[in-house]
Amino acid sequence: MPPDRISATYRIETAHPIGRAVESMAGEQSTGTFVRVPGETDALRERFGARVERVTELEDADGPSLPGSRPPGGAGAAPRFRRAEVVLSWPLENVGPSLPNLLATVAGNLFELSAFSGLKLVDLDLPPAFGEAYPGPQFGPEGTRRLSGVEGRPIIGTIIKPSVGLAPGETAALVGTLIEAGIDFVKDDELMANPPHSPLGRRVEAVMRVVNDHADRTGKKAMIAFNITDEIDAMRRHHDAVLDAGGTCVMVSLNGVGLAGVAHLRSHSQLPIHGHRNGWGIYARHPMLGMEFAAYSTFYRLAGADHLHCNGLRNKFCEPDDSVVASARRCLAPLFGRRVMPVIASGQWAGRAGETYERIGSIDLMHVCGGGIMAHPDGVAAGVLSLRQAWEAALSGTPADEYARARPELRRALEAFGP
Amino acid sequence: MPPDRISATYRIETAHPIGRAVESMAGEQSTGTFVRVPGETDALRERFGARVERVTELEDADGPSLPGSRPPGGAGAAPRFRRAEVVLSWPLENVGPSLPNLLATVAGNLFELSAFSGLKLVDLDLPPAFGEAYPGPQFGPEGTRRLSGVEGRPIIGTIIKPSVGLAPGETAALVGTLIEAGIDFVKDDELMANPPHSPLGRRVEAVMRVVNDHADRTGKKAMIAFNITDEIDAMRRHHDAVLDAGGTCVMVSLNGVGLAGVAHLRSHSQLPIHGHRNGWGIYARHPMLGMEFAAYSTFYRLAGADHLHCNGLRNKFCEPDDSVVASARRCLAPLFGRRVMPVIASGQWAGRAGETYERIGSIDLMHVCGGGIMAHPDGVAAGVLSLRQAWEAALSGTPADEYARARPELRRALEAFGP
């Protein structure tokens, strides 16, 4: 793609001739409307019109994937629903390097077009101007390692459970147990931000007292991702409270805050931003509607997330393993020279380490285990150890059950959570 | 619902026993996780657990609406996919009155749960604390009428076309033609915000010179919705530029800016916020995935939108008329005492006025016609007149074709765009 063009890949499904359908996408998202208007000169269309770069036909669908499409020829005909992967491009000057406006151009009204019975934004390829306008992740894997003091293996983490209901002192006590057990990283649940029963300021104070005490004694400071999801000014205050208390990470619900909010936080932040994608299922769940992770993550990486949730292998949700692996690898492929740290979470425990390493092929990830640490039969310390041992096994190329023979924590985890 | 509880209505589809599936939704979004953890005491669950308020079974689905669900009993069984409408509630103290965090609680991970082959957030019922924390629309229909000087009929508007490619002077010339023709309202396209080829500052200056000149001469100032979609600080600057130039409206792409960004703009704004929902198809297109307008609009009304796009009757997109009508009526039902102005747009022209009035039952709307004004065979002035005449007919209960006999502009519109 030339350096001054924005390009987007889609998977589409239509009962109309594909060429004409794709031209209508390009028209709708650039100079065209449903009738030719006086100002739409040939010169204007030549300069500002979106261009169809590539159309690759895929296998037909059995029937329409989404309701509401209007096949040609009316209700009587028996339409054929063709699928294709298509690439459109736009001149950068149509939009400028602005993420909120990019969304309107590459996504926007497209999902409502009646010519399509399926339309998914698959990927984006952006000109360097976006990398200049947006600094992207400030810390990424390297900065996160530096702050958490973990080298040579993934960052092993867990999540505060129950998700809601604990008072600040109770959360601090639980964090105390976890860091005594050697945990690297602890995150708030996405359901717990700044509610009346656990105001963020009091939680930060109580938790960081425990974290700082431990760091003073041992030299190891666990990274705590405090959920600062909130309105703009409140997020800045929350960030400052975490920073002032010696904290090393803030977390936000990306879809709740939105692109402009995350980018604003990035411009203010002195801490890694842990990006939680809850609500992601709306974009991801249907194969012919919404947005794939490659496109979605491009937006939030540029906006400044340092960590991005990717689910985990054999997660408790609907996402297939191949999709998890592709997402994590995408995070680790530089975008304008910067990588983001994939967060492998959901249904995770020691038994997933080997396969995770094998398939993702990197240690630059956060391996976040809830029940897999908290519900270890010998307690959380054994839970944390079981994860470290499992990664030692993976990194040395030793099968986990063999490595577990002399390591009771890993052995007990395999017995408790294994098949 | 008691005044201290948040309540959400969903349409779900599951091959699991409905009671158990719904309990898993409630658990996932409050105190539960996939294993019982030590801190989840009965007292904590009693106080913070989400509650199932109602389950109404609907007709079964023929098969799974979405891929990825895991029916009980494994692959061999022939599962029955049951549908139901369910209401869950949460104590306000789980979340506090925060929209970005409310989204994580009522939507969040739910769409990924493997027990469901369909899940749609239908509606929300929020406690008064949200109405106190968020001022909502600052202008609404009343303030918009005051600023645009239109009483006794809908606000008649159009959109700048071509969507992209016009230079500021060309946009100003087109606006000049439109306001000479008597238009009430003109909006930028969602594809046109602050691109290099038409910087917002220069566009505002050029357009407002024309608008202010006309207002000085005639006393009528057309409302121009300048698309200020951008990052937080830039949106503030753009808003101030519009205000300083005498402008009376700003427009944002809601999904591009996000909840925190829109609420921040509202806290700063002295102008009505025209809320464009492009990207809405991701939420709306599938009947068993995403969010209905009733829920979606609740978020952006509280965040501060004064106008909300609802599509129009017989629009060029996929949305059925019943959905358009329900959305517009929902905008006109007060939320914490405040209404938002529905924007009826897409495929609109004079011939839609009668049915729009009949079905929505209000004149408190913006009727935005692109081609229906711009492509009128006798020019834009005739296009604007045809809309005014069509609404006169509708409001006096006269059939449009009868009213058109003595009114050539309406008659020519009916001839050109009618069936």
TrEMBL record, chains A, B:
Residues 147-417 form the Ribulose bisphosphate carboxylase large subunit C-terminal domain. One of its GO terms (molecular function) is magnesium ion binding. It holds the Pfam family RuBisCO_large_N. GO terms for biological process: carbon fixation. Its cofactor is Mg(2+). Transmembrane segments: none annotated. Keywords: Magnesium, Metal-binding. CDD domains: RLP_NonPhot. Residues 98-130 form the Ribulose bisphosphate carboxylase large subunit ferrodoxin-like N-terminal domain. Signal peptide: none annotated. Residues 58-78 are annotated as: Disordered. Belongs to the RuBisCO large chain family. This is Ribulose bisphosphate carboxylase-like protein. It comes from Tautonia plasticadhaerens.
